[in-house]
Design goal:
Length: about 425
């Protein structure tokens, strides 16, 4: 092992350290390829790396700002060796190629360190590898940095300050739910509060918080872990996801017995989280008494600040903006939108970085009554809007009018 790519073994996971990048040329070819793939991911702010075997080549794609881009093509002849190298680093079986495997290792370059969650999958052309990059260095963004503001932020902060109840964050996979919850926990993390999390997996480590990773193989599921948590004298509990009726029931019982419970649920908008809980056999009168807010979110790419330019939208786009924003839109104000031209900073795609778009449904007295009467998600959403809730699409359009993102990007992630 050269100085350029050094391995150290900790109690649980191997760490790969890129100490002297100039020495990478002295590495064996396969180790050099893997090192280059990882370094590029770090420099380009990628969240995932896909190494995909094809008939005559192997392509490497990176998910940057939520979009997959192809950045590297490898000869098909090196594919098996590259996969074996990654398997060795991840403590997988290199001679087992017929079934999927999971592993992990750390990679350090300079002051940056990332945790890589590795998954292999046999395909007709060989094993595909996907690596999820989780940064271990760098702070957790504040709620305002994520894109929350106005009445939505105020309602969420009010719910966070309560001693008990449930706060739900909803959205599909990859919509930033976990980051939002970590941001909330970081804000309420104080010496006099016992915060416990049950996650799958633990994505970021936060000092002062007791974080537990589920292990279904050993019998540690969200439900069994939550039962144990209640004997650990917690003030705040984060359950990574409410997936079944048992977890939903335990989360509600924890809230009823004086705990503040945070969790996620897979729904497309904030209001639909309520019927989903009821589908999981949660009692409507209990849900109405413990649920404080439901936050739905998506992540949009931000227009590149280095090359964005103003333009006047077509009458059709102006009409659409007026229809979506409704009373939030002043027809007397001329509409100017922004888009990135493309530059070296944004790899010529016009976008750089990401921002969240949100809707925060506060469970008011009126909405609580609607939950008890098992009103539809649409009726609950309409009531929320009547009480001042801004929908995700409206939030996105307002961010587009401010030049933070583009209308096209909002429609890409928030269109029904």
């Amino acid at each position: 092992m050269t100085e350029a790519l050094k391995e150290t073994s900790g109690p649980y996971v191997r760490t790969v350290v890129a100490e002297h990048i100039s020495d990478v040329i002295r590495e064996p070819p396969i180790a050099r390829i893997v090192s280059t793939v990882l370094e590029f991911a770090l420099k380009s702010r990628a969240s995932d790396i896909h190494i995909e075997p094809q008939e005559i080549r192997t392509r490497v794609r990176y998910r940057i700002d939520g979009v997959l881009v192809e950045k590297l093509v490898l000869p098909r002849t090196v594919h098996d060796a590259v996969v074996s190298r990654i398997k060795i680093l991840s403590d997988m079986k290199i001679d087992e190629r017929r079934i999927p495997q999971d592993g992990r290792f750390n990679f350090k370059m300079g002051d940056e360190e990332i945790d890589l969650r590795v998954s292999t999958l046999p395909t007709i052309h060989g094993e595909k590898v996907v690596m999820r990059l989780l940064k271990k260095t760098g702070g957790i963004p504040d709620l305002t940095e994520l894109g929350l503001g106005g009445l939505g932020l105020k309602n969420l902060e009010e719910a966070m300050s309560r001693p008990y109840g449930i706060i739900l964050v909803t959205g599909p996979t990859g919509s930033g739910k976990t980051t939002t919850l970590y941001s909330v926990l970081s804000r309420i993390n104080k010496i006099n509060i016992n915060i416990m999390t049950l996650e799958d997996p633990v994505e970021y480590q936060i000092a002062g918080i007791n974080q537990v990773q589920v292990n279904p193989g050993a019998g540690l599921t969200f439900a069994t872990g939550l039962r144990s948590f209640l004997r650990q004298d917690p003030n705040v509990i984060l359950v990574g996801e409410i997936r079944d009726s048992e977890t939903a029931g335990l989360a509600i019982q924890a809230a009823l017995t004086g705990h503040l419970v945070f969790s996620t649920i897979h729904t497309n908008d904030a209001a639909t989280a309520i019927p989903r809980l009821l589908d999981m056999e949660a009692e409507s009168f209990l849900v109405s008494s413990v649920l404080h807010v439901s936050v739905a979110q998506r992540i949009c790419r931000k227009a590149c600040p280095h090359c964005k330019e103003q333009y006047t939208p077509t009458p059709e786009v102006v009409a659409d903006i007026g229809e979506v924003l409704g009373p939030l839109y002043d027809p007397k104000t001329p509409i100017v939108l922004f888009r990135g031209k493309g530059c070296d900073e944004c790899s010529h795609n016009g976008y750089l970085g990401r921002i969240g778009i949100f809707e925060v449904l506060k469970v008011s007295e009126r909405i609580a009554k609607m939950i008890i009467s098992k009103a539809t998600a649409r009726d609950i959403e309409d009531q929320g809007v009547a009480e001042g809730m801004i929908t995700m699409k409206q939030d996105g359009y307002m961010k587009a009018l401010k030049g933070i993102t583009t209308i096209e990007e909002v429609l890409r992630v928030a269109e029904d």
